[in-house]
Request: fold
Amino acid sequence: DGNGEQWQELGQQHLNEVAETLIFQDGGSSQYSTNYHRVFVQNLMWADLLSKHSGQPLRPSITSGLRRSVRFLGALVEPVSGSGPFFGPDDGARILPLDRVGHRDLAHDAHVAAAVARVPCRCGTCAGGANPRRSEGLAWLGLPSPAVESNSDIPAFWSFPDIGVHVLAAGTSRAYVRSGRYRYRPGHEDQLHCDIWMNGVNVACDSGTQSYKPGKGEPGALSGVDAHNSPHISGRPQMPSVGRFLKANWSEGVADRLRKDTKSVSGEFEVTTYGPERFRRSVSVEGSSVTVADSCESSRDFVVRWVCEEGLDQGPKVLGDGVSVTQADGNLSQGYGTFEPAAVLQVDATGPITSRWESKGKEGCR
Reply:
């Protein structure tokens, strides 16, 4: 109708505000969540496609935000499985299901998003030619396959300090570490959480999000620090809760000493919680092993819980003085509204500890 141009201009104004305020310079977005970042990207993708169809392309600031957010999404993809670390809240939303892959397949969405944004795809699953599993969404949208970003520079790390996600990769081993400062409201207490993948298997994972409004006997959002692979003081949160979705006294994390050589990549990360406790975590990734060293500068006694999706036999070997290693209760949700008991390795420490995973050559896809 006659108001179409006005509505279009209003939409551009709102999208421009989103791109300038809610998309960080490193490509991360304001909800600190893998799945909500994908929703964010797909909203911008759809707006971009519609604007081009109408002959009124989006403003450069919006397309710049789309490209940055797509690059970050691609960096999250674990290339053997096509999945990745589902950190932060996750209600299962996926607004452009243009294929028959599962909710936790990130590679397809990263591939299609790269084609829309016209940036090289960095998901790592396209090497060696076209992958039929990644082409269905492109067919629906009538788009050619995007260029492929080379993954020859391995070992490698990709650091996204604004959203607080750091990716360390060597061979078929990969670690994703959460450490950063919040600009917007955090949903999960997952500072220093470490998601570890070996040969496409998520050997140390996030507990997920079962429900924002759980029924009787259900674990709920699994947002506390004990649902993550983070060092903490037993019984003490990283941030106190002052409502179902609101945390106070936000913790602060930093990353430093990110370095690599011909065989490995490593980094050191530090988080200060409201206690205040100061935790340090050092992560080193080689082609067939991942090593995580933890310490607490403010207390001798601390706890690390490792959620082991593949079972405790896929868990780490733990070394350190004054260490107690036991099996603990936990929950794992791989889809909203569902959960199952999780294998959790609990490490109670009175000093620095080291946890080490060795590759067993198993491959799989979640």
Summary: Residues 276 and 298 are 8 Å apart (CA to CA). The mean pLDDT is 92. The chain has five helices and 18 strands. The longest helix spans residues 34-54.
